[in-house]
Design brief:
Elements: H1 3-6, H2 12-23, H3 35-43, E1 47-51, E2 63-68, H4 70-87, E3 93-96, E4 106-110, E5 119-124, E6 129-134, E7 138-139, E8 152-159, E9 165-170, H5 174-181, H6 185-194, E10 198-203, E11 227-229, E12 235-240, E13 245-250, H7 259-265, E14 271-275, E15 281-285, E16 291-292, H8 294-301
Antiparallel strand pairs: 1-2, 3-4, 3-7, 4-5, 5-6, 8-9, 8-10, 11-12, 12-13, 14-15, 15-16
C-alpha cells in the first residue's frame, strides 16, 4: 500500500466514522457506515473486518463489524487535529487544561499551525513565554460578560483565574485596589495558586442592594384592606382578602456612589489615602494631616 494512501486526508464522512470509532472503547466503526466508504477505508488499511462464524448457512454475510487499524487510528487523529486547528487558529486565545488536571490550567494564545503530533506553539500567560501544548488540551474561553450600566465607582471586585469572586475592596486606582486586595487571606491564597489575580472596577449598577437586605425601610402595603407579609428577595407580598388570595412579586434595588467619590464631588478638603498608621486601611487625610475614617469624613462633610 503506497504511503500516500495511508496518509490521505479523510473526507468529512470518513472523518466522522473514524472519530466515532476512535472514541469507542473497542474501536468499532458505526454499524450504519456505507458499504462503499468501508471498502475505500479498507483499501487504505484504516479498518479491518471482524468475521462471523461461517458455519451457519443462514448468515447472509460473514462480516460482523469493522474495527480501526493502527493506520486508522493515525487517520482519526489527523482528522481530529484538523478539526481543532479550525476551532483554534493562530492568534486565538484559549484555556489550556493539562493532563495534571484543572488546577494547573493556563490561559494561552495559539501562535503556530499544528505539528504532526497535534501540538502547537502558544504564548502562556502563567509562564509569560512560549510553550508547546496539544490542541486536544485546549478549551474555549468563557464568554465575556456584557458591559455593566452606570458610572464607574471606587469599588473593585477581585477574582481568581477561573473568574470566581474573592473579595471587594475600595480604592481610587488599580494599584491601590491590588494593595487592598492582598490584605484578604483568600486573595493571597489565590495569588499563590494562580500566580496572580484579576481586579475590575465596578459600575454603579453592580452595587444594587436587594430589598431583602435593606434595613430601616418602611413597609409597603399594596392596599389598605390587605395584609402584607414581606419575605426574602426578590420581595414577595402575599395578600389575603375574604374573596381571593394573590401573590405579587417585586424586585427592586438601590444605587449610591461611594463615600470617596461623594467627598471629592462635594469639594471636601483632603484626599483618600492608604494610611500606614492605620495598618494600610483607607483614610480621608485633611490638609492639616488629620486622618478620618470614610464614615467619620462623611459625617463631617456630607451630613451622613
Amino acid at each position: 500500500m503506497p504511503r500516500a494512501a495511508l496518509d490521505a486526508t479523510p473526507t468529512n464522512y470518513q472523518a466522522r466514522l473514524l472519530l466515532a470509532a476512535l472514541d469507542d472503547c473497542q474501536r468499532r466503526v458505526p454499524s450504519d457506515a456505507k458499504t462503499r466508504t468501508l471498502h475505500i477505508m479498507d483499501l487504505r488499511q484504516w479498518v479491518r473486518p471482524v468475521l462471523r462464524d461461517r458455519s451457519g448457512p443462514s448468515i447472509p454475510s460473514n462480516v460482523r463489524h469493522w474495527m480501526l487499524t493502527h493506520h486508522g487510528v493515525n487517520a482519526a487523529n489527523r482528522a481530529r487535529t484538523a478539526q481543532l486547528a479550525e476551532k483554534y487558529p493562530v492568534a486565538t486565545p484559549a484555556v489550556y487544561v493539562p493532563e495534571e488536571g484543572e488546577e494547573h490550567r493556563d490561559i494561552v494564545v495559539v501562535m503556530s499551525e499544528p505539528a504532526a503530533d497535534g501540538t502547537v506553539e502558544a504564548h502562556s500567560v502563567k509562564h509569560s513565554g512560549p510553550v508547546r501544548v496539544p490542541l486536544a488540551g485546549l478549551r474555549e474561553l468563557p464568554p465575556l460578560r456584557p458591559e455593566p450600566e452606570g458610572d464607574l465607582t471606587d469599588c473593585w471586585v477581585i477574582t481568581d483565574a477561573e473568574g470566581a469572586e474573592l473579595a471587594r475592596v475600595e480604592a481610587k486606582d488599580d494599584p491601590g485596589a491590588r494593595t487592598a486586595a492582598m490584605r484578604h487571606p483568600k486573595v493571597r491564597a489565590a495569588a499563590r495558586r494562580d500566580k496572580g489575580f484579576a481586579v475590575r472596577r465596578l459600575h454603579t449598577s453592580e452595587l444594587s442592594v436587594p430589598i431583602g437586605e435593606l434595613r430601616g425601610l418602611p413597609r409597603i402595603s399594596t392596599a389598605p384592606a390587605e395584609r402584607v407579609t414581606p419575605s426574602a428577595t426578590p420581595a414577595r407580598f402575599c395578600t389575603d382578602t375574604p374573596s381571593a388570595r394573590r401573590t405579587i412579586t417585586v424586585t427592586t434595588g438601590m444605587t449610591r456612589k461611594s463615600i470617596p467619590t461623594r467627598l471629592r464631588e462635594s469639594s471636601a478638603p483632603g484626599a483618600m489615602v492608604t494610611s500606614e498608621a492605620a495598618g494600610g486601611a483607607l483614610r480621608w487625610r485633611l490638609p492639616n494631616g488629620e486622618e478620618l475614617t470614610p464614615g467619620d469624613a462623611a459625617k463631617r462633610f456630607l451630613d451622613d
